[in-house]
Structures are given as structure tokens and as C-alpha cells.
Amino acid sequence: METELSHNLQQLSEKARSTTEFIHRLKGMSDKVTESCIEFERLVSAQCESLIQMIHERREFLLDTIRIDKETKIRTLKEQQLNCTGKLQQTNGLIQFCIEALKETDSAAFLQVGSMLINRVANTDMTWHQEVTNAAPRVSPIVDLTLDDSHVIRAIDNLNFIQMKLPLAPQIIPEDCSAENNSVTVAWLQPNHSFIQGYVLELDDGSGGEFREVYCGKETICTVDGLHFNSMYNARVKAFNTSGEGEYSDIIGLQTAEVAWFTFDKQLTGTCSGLNFMNDNRTVSADGWEHCVALGTVGFSRGVHYWEFTIDRYTADTDPAFGVARIDVARDKMLGKDDKGFAMYIDRQRSWFQHNSIHERRVEGGISTGSTVGVLLDLERHTLHFIVNEMPQGSVAFRDLYGVFYPAVSVNRGVTLTLHSGLYAPHMDYH
């Protein structure tokens, strides 16, 4: 029995000690509450003083507006007063002159000025009727301005504290989400009962990898361009405020296009002025004899991609070049002349592969009007192939292609080409 009592006393003692510590913690929290409230009062007072200062500044602006309106009206009235005074003085002078003329006893002398005076008096009477009798003040003496303070009053009435909590998770709107070519659009709803200052949208790498931030802002819809083709991207979004970041939304998967649709990009090609784009930027020609490079609207860094060109016109002894290029390729040289371009240039009878001004591996078979040239970029094997008139033009043209590559051609006078995209890649021998 003593042992049981001793055990119970020990437990009770532990509870008493815990309660004592809890009481001390509560006292400490009371001090922190006091400190926090004092600091918060200071912040609220500062915010209110700032608002009051803004009201004072706005008041001065409004009073200045009234003063400017007053000065403008007074100046207008003075100008009108001066005009009327001048008209009155001219009229009085005419009246006095006519009175003196009527006193003239020499009939011949009166006849010389009588007709002229009659006309002047008639004209003066007409203009007096128009300018003076029917005249009205050009401005109103009443201030025709009204101070619209209703919005401010409502804002002051609604000025209150809000309970800052972490925002809830946004809700993805599947019917408003889409994927087109190599871009995706994600839309979401603002979570209810949450104070939101912004959103963070994240995408994975299209292969189930880690998420990365692609957008941060206040909009509830975002389009992300420049993604990989034929890839399933997972997207999620979260909201944030000054208290921190909320939970993520549910994940939505968006599949980019299996094949790439693109045209020539006039913006990227702008540094070379000799090119002409037609047919919604799918057809290109050149004016001069110097080569100009035209780039496509999309860049590739992953996947297998194929596109073709038809030769619409080929009338001169020239050799257009087809292939791929990095974004900073020289625009005013034949494709393949610098280390940014990988190309095949071809004439009526044969072709060569060219990179960094080194051309090699001559292949028989050329082009003419109506020919087709295909470009196969395989970034899974990191190779580049060419096909002329549905037949492989040699073996693998280039290997070890890593990075981002844009479809590219270079043309000069005498050649017109049309680009065809959205094509499935043919099977090739990679040996």
C-alpha cells in the first residue's frame, strides 16, 4: 500500500511540475502578446498616418484643380469683357461721328459721307445684334465639378483586419486546360475563403521528372511555350500570401503534339533583309545572289522530327542548303559556313554535307523544280539525315548533335521553297 501511494504521489508531483511549467509558459506568452500588440498598434498607426497623408496630398491636388478652373474662367470673362468694351467704344465713336455729320449744313459735303455712314451704321447694328445683344457669358459662374468620394467612403467603411492563414489549394479547371503543338495552357480557380497574393505554377520535365517553377503571378491562367513534343507534362499550382504557401492542387497531365507543326519565323530571320515570305510564312525566296538563312518557329532538343521542302522554282545555277541550326547561326551566309549550322547543299546533279565551312562526302543526285528535300532530325540517336525525292541522300550526315536545333535553310536568287511540317518520320538505316 505504501508503494502504491508513493507511486501515485510521484505521478501527481510530475503533473504538478508540468502544470507549473505550463503556467510559466502562459505568462511568457502573455508578455509576447503584449509586445506583439504594441508593435502591431505601431504598424496600424503608421498605415493610418500614411493614408491620412495621402488624403492631404489628394486634397491639395483637388484644390489646385479648383484654383486652375477659377483662373481659367476669370481669364475668359476678362477677355470677353475687353472685347465688349472695345466694341462699345467703337460704336460710341461711330454714333458721335454721325451726330456731327448730321449737323453739317453743306448738303454736298453730307452727300459725300452720308452713304458711307449709312452702311457703317447698318453693319454695326447687325454685328452688335450678333456679338452683343445675343451674347452670353462664355463660362458659367457655378463650379461644374463634383467630388466623387463614394468609393473612398466605402473603402474606409470596409477597412478592417483580415485573418491571415495559409491559402487553400487552387482547383484546376480541366475543360479550360489544353495542349497545342509544343505548348500547354493551365487554368485554375481561386480557392474560396482564402486571401491570395499570387500563384506558383509548376511543370515536370515531360518524362515524369522533378517539378520546376514556370510561372509566378496573380493570373489564374498561364500558357507555357517551348516544351518538348510528344511528351506528357504534369502540372500543379499552389497559392501564397504573406503567411506562406498553401497546398498544391491536384495534378493534371497534358500531352503535347506527337509531330511538330511550324512555319518560317520572320522575327528570327530579321537580320537578313533579302528574304521574301509568302503562303503564311511557309514559302520563302530571295532577291539577291548572297545566301540568307531562314529559321523555323520551333527549336528541338528531344525526340525524332521530320519535315520536307518542295522546290517550287529552280531557274538559276545555285545551291540551296537545308538542315538545322542553333539560334545564333550567321544569317547572311550559306547554312553550314559557321559552326552553328549543319547542312546539305545541293545543285542539279549532286550534294555535299557542310559544317563550319568544311564540306565533304559528295553524293550524286540533284534537284529541279518539283523536287522534294526531307530533313530527319533524330535527337534520340543525335543524328541528322537527308532525303531527296523520297530516297536517302547518302548515309548519316551528322552525328553527336546535342542541344537545341531549329529547322533551317539558306537560299539565294533563283530558288523558291515551301516548307511542309507535321509529318511522321520515315524509318532510316543508321549505319
Automatic annotation (TrEMBL):
<dbReference type="InterPro" id="IPR036116">
    <property type="entry name" value="FN3_sf"/>
</dbReference>
<dbReference type="InterPro" id="IPR013783">
    <property type="entry name" value="Ig-like_fold"/>
</dbReference>
<feature type="domain" description="Fibronectin type-III">
    <location>
        <begin position="167"/>
        <end position="246"/>
    </location>
</feature>
<dbReference type="InterPro" id="IPR013320">
    <property type="entry name" value="ConA-like_dom_sf"/>
</dbReference>
<dbReference type="GO" id="GO:0007411">
    <property type="term" value="P:axon guidance"/>
</dbReference>
<dbReference type="InterPro" id="IPR003961">
    <property type="entry name" value="FN3_dom"/>
</dbReference>
<protein>
    <recommendedName>
        <fullName>E3 ubiquitin-protein ligase TRIM9</fullName>
    </recommendedName>
</protein>
<keyword id="KW-0175">Coiled coil</keyword>
<dbReference type="GO" id="GO:0043005">
    <property type="term" value="C:neuron projection"/>
</dbReference>
<dbReference type="InterPro" id="IPR050617">
    <property type="entry name" value="E3_ligase_FN3/SPRY"/>
</dbReference>
<dbReference type="Pfam" id="PF00622">
    <property type="entry name" value="SPRY"/>
</dbReference>
<dbReference type="InterPro" id="IPR043136">
    <property type="entry name" value="B30.2/SPRY_sf"/>
</dbReference>
<dbReference type="InterPro" id="IPR003649">
    <property type="entry name" value="Bbox_C"/>
</dbReference>
<dbReference type="InterPro" id="IPR003877">
    <property type="entry name" value="SPRY_dom"/>
</dbReference>
<feature type="domain" description="SPRY">
    <location>
        <begin position="302"/>
        <end position="425"/>
    </location>
</feature>
<feature type="domain" description="B-box C-terminal">
    <location>
        <begin position="1"/>
        <end position="127"/>
    </location>
</feature>
<dbReference type="Pfam" id="PF00041">
    <property type="entry name" value="fn3"/>
</dbReference>
